[in-house]
Design a protein that fits this description.
Elements lengths: L6 E8 L4 H17 L4 E6 L2 H8 L2 E4 L3 H5 L7 E10 L5 H15 L4 E8 L4 H8 L6 E4 L2 H9 L7 E3 L17 E5 L8 H15 L2 E4 L4 H15 L3 E3 L6 H8 L2 E6 L2 H9 L4 E3 L4 H10 L4 H4 L11 H26 L1
Parallel strand pairs: 1-2, 1-4, 2-3, 4-5, 5-6, 6-7, 8-9, 8-11, 9-10, 11-12
Helix pairs in contact: 1-10, 4-5, 10-11
Amino acid sequence: MPGAAGRVVLLGYAGAQNLGDEAILAGSLDLIRTFGDDFTPLVVSLDPADTERRHQVEAWPRTRFGALLKTLGAGDRFLLGGGGLLQDSTSLGSLGYYLRAAAAAGRRSPVAYWAIGVGPLSRTGRWVLARAPAPQVAVARDPASLALLGHSGVPADRLVLGADAAYQLLSVPARTSRWIGFAPRSVPGLDVEALARQLVLVARDSGRQIRVFAMDSRQDSDLVRQLVRSHGPVMEFCELPAESEGILTLFSELEYMVAIRLHAMILASLAGVPSVAVPYDPKVEREARLLGMPLWSEWHLHPQTTPGPGRGQLAASVAGRRTQLQSAFAAMWQALA
């Protein structure tokens, strides 16, 4: 019967109203349900009710993670990830929290780093990561993260190259393009308003309007509304649905996406739409290079050109990333057996 083999506990950033993290979780759950034998997923969440409603999965409150640890056994599996958890640009405390959680789980159950991004890391962050117990297997979502895990001391035979877990989501066909998409976020040192003004000029020259999306409702909504007030009617706010399928449908109507948010680019790619990447963080440039997408600094000087690869090449890139992800899951699952 389902669940007889044990549980797969996932600790990431679920329940934070960040649609990129929810896409990661949706892809991870699909892999577990499809290829994870009879194991039952259990998600540690900042908002368990939202996670259960959104993903039809049992969720556990993050505030009670210590109590969950006491229930883990050798028949369970613990996955740290996916997403960019192993970095200290947010805070050194965040990095320490995830590494301590994985170490504590590892005393009771097999542990894997799953579809994880690593960096940026300060010298102190690299020191902390190097002193953490190595998991049974570590799946990195990009080659740079894989190298950082190797440099931190994870043995080479435990390292697996995967992809972002959101690539497990089903692609949708691109529709007739109507808008330019823009997924902003506030970043120290990045003048988002100046970038928006440049994008408005591009839109006017091409006779397009811009749809602006808040990928993280808590962090991005005020900025999005401010941009729309400043640049309407060329810019309009477009509210995103909670489910990834609805997001992909909306994105499929874009000509291209200007993405400061990493998962705006990934989800646009799943919708057959190219992106222009604004690399506020190394993870954005890494994924843009893997997908063949241009950076804003390269493209905005020649905006009359369609950014990125053609639809056929983009579909092939997405299919390749999905295959890499599924192969990595299979390797991880075997290592945890």
